[in-house]
Amino acid sequence: MIGHSTQEKIEKLVQSCGCNLYDLLLLKENERSILRLYITKEVGVSLDDCAMVSDLISPLLDVEDPLAGEYFLEVSSPGIERPLKRPAHYQHALGELARIKFADKNEIEGEIEAADETSVKLKGEEPIPYSLIKKAQTFYRW
Fold first, then answer.
1. Fewer beta carbons within 10 angstroms: which end of the chain, N or C?
2. Contact of 73 with 37, CB cutoff 8 Å
3. Are 99 and 139 in contact (CB under 8 A)?
């Protein structure tokens, strides 16, 4: 697990590149440990942005050594269809389409009209408290 102070340092380094830290995940895929950073930027994330963030973060991780053993660092954009986990994610996605799943297996789709610290509102629907949401993500209608 990444400590709070290390995560704050990572966030500051990402911001120094003109980007924002969207999410940070520690996963295991095919027996490999992966530290995956998702970054966003107002005008979109480029490959150069990802490389710059990776180059800045790597020395910090070498010193802080937040993970036991070998791991791979991956830096990318969360993509057009991205998970919504925090109020800031919903606020950043105003006007976008979202699919929200509830614990009772029901789901709803719609355009995000408003979001605050406690709930999200889809166009034509009542506000939905985050506590009722099991999983949510933006989606693009192709």
1. C
2. yes
3. yes
Return the half-sphere exposure (C-beta side, CA atoms, 13 A cut-off) of residue 75: 24
Q: Decide if 81 is inside a domain.
A: no
CATH number at residue 124: 2.30.30.100
Do residues 71 and 127 both lie within one domain?
no
- The CA radius of gyration of the chain, in Å to the nearest whole number, is 17
Q: pTM score, two decimals?
A: 0.86
Q: Which neighbouring-strand residues pair with 102?
A: 133
Amino acid identity at 57: I
Total domains, the chain: 2
* The pLDDT of residue 71 is above 90: no
State the Cα–Cα distance between residues 126 and 89, nearest whole angstrom. Answer: 19
Collect all residues with Cβ–Cβ distance below 8 Å to 11 and sequence separation of at least 6. 21
Do 72 and 91 lie in a common domain?
no
The Cα angle at residue 29 between residues 77 and 14, in degrees rounded to 5 = 30
Beta bridge mates, 138: 98
Q: Does residue 69 or residue 15 have the better pLDDT?
A: 15
- The domain in which residue 129 lies consists of 87-139
